[in-house]
Amino acid sequence: MLASLESVSKILSNPTWDLLVVLFFVAAGFFYGMVAGKKKLLAVLFAIYISIVLLPNFGYLDYFTQDGGIFTVFLTRALAFFTLIVLLGFLFAKTIFRGKPKKEKFWQIFVLSFLEVGLFMSASFQLLPAKDLFDFSPLVQTFFASSGIYFWWLTLPLVALFFILRRGKEE
Fold it and tell me: Residues with Cβ < 8 Å from 41, sequence gap 6 or more?
């Protein structure tokens, strides 16, 4: 127990660049969730899931990066992933998830924001050649970049949706 407290203290007193990026995304996701609301969070969450399926199957990306190096592949895929999420999120917000929600609970927005950012980060590590370009801290590698944790980031938002949407019908 004492050794783990020392390692956490060491990480927090001297954070690595990748941990700062993760913290930035968590803070930005939470801020977006508070400003946008639950319906837009749901729209973006569905957009992330669909983008995870579409990006690896979009063969034209390889056509654009055939003469470039690994950094060009990374930038092209990152731009395509982010663009898909933004476009699909906008489309879903205007069609499927339009209107004002009846009740927005702080804890629901917090949980959705956290899980959405976690899914985005983990999917980014899996879909983009980031592991080939950068060295990540053990903390980021364990919680976002490993293949085993990717399954949990894919699953946890769905479990949370079950409880949030079910609870909304009961109230």
Answer: 32, 33, 109, 112, 113, 116
Contact 114, 156 (CB under 8 A): no
pLDDT per position as a tens digit, 132-168:
777 777 777 788 888 889 999 999 999 998 888 775 5
pLDDT of amino acid 110:
86
Name the residue among 7, 4, 23, 16 with its Cα closest to residue 135.
Answer: 16
* CA–CA gap between residue 64 and residue 61 (Å, rounded): 5
Query: Could you state, in order of their start, the residue ranges of all structural domains in the chain?
Result: 39-170
pLDDT, tens digit, 9 for 90 and up, residues 27-83: 887 888 788 788 888 999 999 999 999 998 887 877 777 777 888 888 888 899 999
Q: Which long-range contacts (CB under 8 A, 24 or more apart) does 135-143 make?
A: 136/16, 136/18, 137/11, 137/16, 137/18, 137/19, 139/11, 139/19, 140/16, 140/18, 140/19, 140/22
Which pLDDT does position 13 carry in this prediction?
60
Answer for the pair 124, 130: CB distance below 8 angstroms, yes or no. yes
User: From CA 165, how far away is CA 134, in angstroms rounded?
Assistant: 38
